[in-house]
């Protein structure tokens, strides 16, 4: 392994199994196709959301004195998990951890991380991530980012969901047209405050008081304002919510149909994740050669003879 971090897709199935493979229990992601607060509230308990957007290149992104929305809370970085982003291609996993590590049921924010309301306020993040969190919380944000980049567990799990790319498009290197860059950030209520956690910013961004029951309305207001800063033609956004495993709720309610739907969704996600990792070049080549061989054996007109 080269030690680098590969790009992963913004997909609920990818992020759910990434959570599970990191050791977190009874938690998943759901993709949101609307900014209606009621849709998010229906998934309660909601631990946070991850937002993907086009990285702006027409102006400096990282603020130094005041963000475009909200206020920097430098002291919060000492109380909650916030890490500076020090590596490329890992912002999705870093956003995931920004929510997850602030919801540790046994950690400092366990009982109050979602406003201190409801039994679903915390997550069992597992032994490995709990040890990572406990180790890094004594460090400043920039060193937390370095610790994350050097974590073999987190990097290996992240890279296990990288999409296979057997072909290299040389035109992308010489066309002169810059590729659009995208960035993940997290929003989560921690100790009664709605925080925006973005490793490219100098500190957590506070968006004011927020309990678990207020989170759907307040976070959607923030996202609406953020999206409004883009041109109307820009629609490349993605929003996923980190919620309690929906199978748990189905079992608690005795809803067999809902449970089967969720189990089928997991099976579909597993199949899709396997396809993402598989390189089909060899398979396609074997099929093509088989077709050509079959045609030639049938006495083709010679059109296939040039195929190597």
TrEMBL record:
The protein's Enzyme Commission number: 3.4.19.12
SUPFAM superfamilies noted in UniProt: Cysteine proteinases
Site (Important for enzyme activity): residue numbering on this chain: 198
Signal peptide per UniProt: none
Keyword Cell division appears in the UniProt entry: no
Site note Transition state stabilizer, residues: 85
Protein name, per record: Ubiquitin carboxyl-terminal hydrolase
């Amino acid at each position: 392994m080269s030690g680098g971090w590969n790009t992963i897709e913004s997909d609920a199935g990818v992020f759910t199994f990434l959570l599970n493979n990191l050791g977190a229990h009874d938690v998943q992601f759901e993709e949101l196709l609307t900014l209606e607060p009621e849709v998010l509230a229906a998934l309660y308990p909601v631990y946070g959301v991850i937002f993907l957007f086009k990285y702006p290149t027409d102006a400096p992104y990282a603020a130094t004195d005041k963000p475009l929305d909200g206020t920097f809370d430098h002291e919060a970085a000492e109380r909650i998990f916030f890490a500076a982003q020090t590596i490329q291609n890992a912002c999705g996993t870093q956003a995931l951890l920004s929510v997850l590590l602030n919801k540790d049921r046994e950690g400092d924010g366990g009982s109050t991380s979602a406003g201190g309301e409801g039994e679903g306020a915390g997550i069992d993040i597992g032994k490995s991530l709990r040890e990572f969190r406990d180790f890094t919380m004594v460090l400043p944000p920039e060193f937390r980012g370095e610790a994350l980049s050097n974590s073999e567990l987190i990097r290996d799990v992240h890279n296990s969901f990288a999409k296979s790319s057997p072909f290299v498009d040389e035109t992308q290197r010489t066309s002169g047209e810059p590729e659009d860059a995208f960035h993940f950030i997290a929003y989560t209520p921690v100790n009664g405050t709605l925080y925006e956690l973005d490793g490219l910013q100098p500190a957590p961004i506070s968006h004011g008081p927020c309990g678990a029951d207020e989170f759907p309305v307040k976070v959607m207001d923030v996202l609406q304002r953020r999206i409004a800063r883009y041109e109307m033609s820009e629609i490349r956004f993605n929003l996923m919510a980190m919620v309690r495993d929906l199978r748990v709720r189905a079992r608690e309610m005795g809803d067999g149909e809902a449970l089967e739907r969720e189990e089928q969704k997991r099976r579909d996600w597993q199949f899709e994740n396997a396809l993402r990792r598989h390189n089909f070049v060899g398979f396609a080549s074997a099929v093509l050669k088989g077709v050509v061989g079959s045609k030639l054996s049938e006495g083709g007109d010679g059109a296939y003879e040039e195929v190597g």
